[in-house]
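User: Could you walk me through two proteins back to back? I'd like the raw sequence and the structure tokens for each, with a short line separating them so I can tell where one ends and the next begins.

Assistant: Of course. Protein one, sequence then structure:
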Amino acid sequence: MSGTLHSFIQLAWRNMWRNPRRTLITLVVVSAGLWSILFFNAFLNAWMQSSKDATLKLLIGSGQIHAREYMDNPNIKTVMAPPGARLRAALERPEIAAWSARLVLPGVIQSEYKTRPVNIAGVDPATERRLSSIPAKIVRGRYLNGVDDDGVVLGLHMAKRLKTGLGRRVILMSQNADGTVSEQSFTVVGLFDANQKTEDFYVFTGRAADQRFLHLNAEISEIAFAVPNDADLDPVLTRLRAAAPQLDVRSWRQLSTYLAATDSMMRGVIYIWLAVVFSMMAIGIVNTQLMAVFERLHEFGLLRALGMTPRRVLMMVSLESLFLIGVGCLVGMALAALTIWGLRGGIDLSAFAKGLELVQGGQVLFPKFDLASFVVFPLLIWLLGILVALWPASRAAKASPVEAMRHAT
């Protein structure tokens, strides 16, 4: 049996190259289709990762902790105490790269010319530098020096709308712990450049300075944390909820539903593309294989007349398809790997920065080689391609000696 199979493998390999033009057309169809799937998958993953990094590193982080009522009604009455020993121990675990306690409450900012609603964020600059990208986005002036810094950092667009700038004074107003409205003058010490939503709705000052401004002691409104490895996020959330059952612990998916929906959509798009590409490939494979079968119908009939069983004819033609599609998959994998490797330095989309900002997209994409996709997608294409080729192979297996004699004459 092994000798027969070895002979059939050699025969199938030689038959595959009997018509080089048809073979090359099929190889191009399979390899180009698989290349597009693998590269498109890497591109979408890079797009999603870039969007996540750009959005989550601004303020959200991998997740946040609040008092249970805060997300429904963020105000001075829904603040919480700083983390206790148990929660702090959970936050200091190695799975969490950084965390920061903030006091973020709604308020109003007023310049000499304009008044705008904002979220006043009191932060600890030392921990924010490890968690948020805002400190690195300062384009004029400086970031905050410490929790007691009573300067204020504004977004560029907010400064433009208020007609103010560095060194100018603005007035912040917000409800304080006494139930009245606190009003205080702050000096603009820095301007940051982020997406317009963040620039328009957040101003930053030192956390302790903000607490004094609102007549609070050490109360905070949220704790943001970063978990570099996505696989660790769910266990981290479980531990944090166990450490602080009275608090509301949420992941970034619950905090940014738009980003979560985009993430799910991107994962579905690749499978839609896989279905489209495979449908086109199936048409090409069936067409070329049927042409090959009809052209060799007399050959199959003669083989039947010489005693070859339909099962062996089916096996021989199926082996040809197996080799043909397999070689196409290998070529497609090689082309995709070379393309991804060639773009390892990143795809710069900064020319489309304004449009990308509207969809929360990152400006530089870094496609990465994903071993799982380079195994799953080629194997899926290979198996489905062989399945599609079984129809032409079954036609060949049904060839009769009488048909062979007719085609021979």
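----
Protein two, same layout:
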Amino acid sequence: MDFSSPSSLSPASSWQPNPFAADVCTTPFEVAENRSVPAMNRDVFQRVANAIEDLGDGDGHGRSGKPLLLLTAPRAGYGKTHLLGRMAAVAESQAVAVPLVFRSDADVMWAGVSQEAVEVLRHLPGKTPGWSRLREICAGIFASMVLRLIRDGRLPCANQQQAIRVLSADPTDLFREGTTAKMIGDWLKKHYPQLRKPLTDLARSLPNAGVMEGWVDALFAGAHHGSMASLEPVVALASGSRAAFELWLRLVTLWRPVVLFVDHLDGFYRQEQSGLRIATMLLELAELEGVNVVLSLNQDVWQATFAHHLPSALEDRLTASQFLLRGLSAVDAEDLLRLRLREGQVPAVDAQHFEQFLDVPRYFQGRPVGSVSARSFLRHCALQWDAFQQIKVRGHEPLSSVAPAHEVQEPLLVDDEGTGSSLLGRDELPESPIFGDDEASRVKTLLSGLHEPRPAMVNTPFALAPVQTPPAAVPPPPPPVQPMAGFSAMAAGPSPFALASPTPPAGHPDWNGRTEPESQPRAPGALEKLRDMMDRLRSQPVPVATPEEPAATTGVAARLADVLNTDASPPSNSDLVARFEAFRGEMAKEAQHRPLDLSKLGELIRLAGKRFPLVQFDEVELPHVASKTAPRWTLQGMEILFGLSDFHDLDYWRALSTFASNRIAELQGGAAVQIKLIALKSNRETLAWTALQAGDAIPAALRPKMEVLHLDTRSIAALYAMQRMITESEAGTLNATPSQVMSVLARELDFFWKRVTRPLAAAF
């Protein structure tokens, strides 16, 4: 493997964004077929697509009594949601894809499920610019009803063939300016009072139809105006009961068949009664003519919530048409690798070098067929990409002599599920001769410099750092350093709040007793200053555990927090940690069953910004929105803006985007300052976030500067617990100051600080 090209591996080479950073598909409506690997789960995709194609006969009529389609995967990360998105994209021209959302914080009732389904369509953008999916459906139903009147001879027409051709095409053309079908649309609007009665009579022919005048008026208003307010009557009529929702689906099938997609049921784990209710509802919907249901589950949820917990008759019907996803093959992985490199606009030379560096065939050696999920492979690629970039930035001569794949005993990076980040296991070369003898010493030195902390991911377990004491051979520590003023030592790369086991000073042992060689290279610039500060903080004496007082955590986050703590008699660290754990347990239920509380997170962000010494905090006023602001953290080389408003508040996000764009324009030609926008979300905000992304509130030029932080239940509970402890300390009900709380518990939120402060090159 030859990486000796100076143009691609010189220290001057720019750090390229990680094209493998995104490894979670949150909603099927963000998937595009041209951004997918066609061979992935090809057999399952074709079988499900064929089942969807069999739904209708071209007139919107479909057969009833169809089996529900059950899509299962061994575990998360095998591409269920991505496959649903591909199916929705394929069915877009011949069926209506409707996401059926079941919320774990609400009872599984027809009223809530039906309203959630139609409400989602009202906010999701359609394929027509400026149109929602619900407006498109209303236009399709209305055009199909008029078409049926013409074909039945109940609506006289001078040029019947032309009218049928126009009404059979894109129904949105009837209500959009600049289209040839707009003339027919204007005629329909002009003569709507005369059309209202025959359209109502046609709608009454549907099974279980009642008074339909309100339905016809709501469909016409929704198609003609399309505003959120004009679509509200459609949502009200289509939800509230099983009969109302089924009537809505029958109206949709007048235009096209319906495919109901059910995903993200992980919140119902071990809730057997809810599983029984969900299974019953889905099987009843699958019985409707022209409606098909695709249920997507992981095997653990299926076994714990459904499976043997259902009556045998229901279980048999659910598994009548079951499809099991398998993992990637080596060929699929290579296609996915090249797709991400191409989408990331990685130069051809770097892409070729990285593909050789990664060595996909070696990664798949010894792994069972079908056991590698797409997510674990992408996370492996992301870790390898960071290592590849480190080699380029540090300017070391790259690995020029690598043994052939059949001689390699262990991969360079061992990380089956994407959760580890250690190079060569325990900082030692494998026994097999991967490198030449003359390269071994230099590679070992390089790899020790690349040793970084575990990546802060949403599923990283919350655990205190182990209590450690310095070895006896450590020389006496220097006098304690004073707190740093300002943020001049802040590096553009690592988080200022916690770095796990950074490189110790040359010639001094680290916390594990290893000694760093004198020739160890250091990162240039601000990062070198920051690491020097970390070394000084780390060299302070660590309290030894006694029966009365446990030793404090030796993590760098705790060391930085000690700089903040100026009280003469701090409280017991163990008491604060125990109280934090108790609060986190209490907050878990709220985090699981309620929407994200942005006010609590905003308060925590403001408190942290004011107390961390490497951060300057202020509140910026947003243009064109009264009394609305956004917190801002200013670090060396970076400004971080936090968006703390509901994703449906388009005025707020437009104002925040305007401020960020103006700020970027101000900084052009000046100091190299990176602007970064942070948005916070949980599973409940996924669809609203997708709708915001698809709209025009955030300009396309600004989106590379924006990062959405997805928070799982445990992460949210930890943030809530920290906010509550600081609030109690300020109110005097907790026997500790806010600085003491931050000093002891800063490490507990290390996962959050790192994700907030990482540069965009690492985030995207």
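The first strand starts at residue 69 and ends at 73.

Let me know if you want the two compared in more detail.
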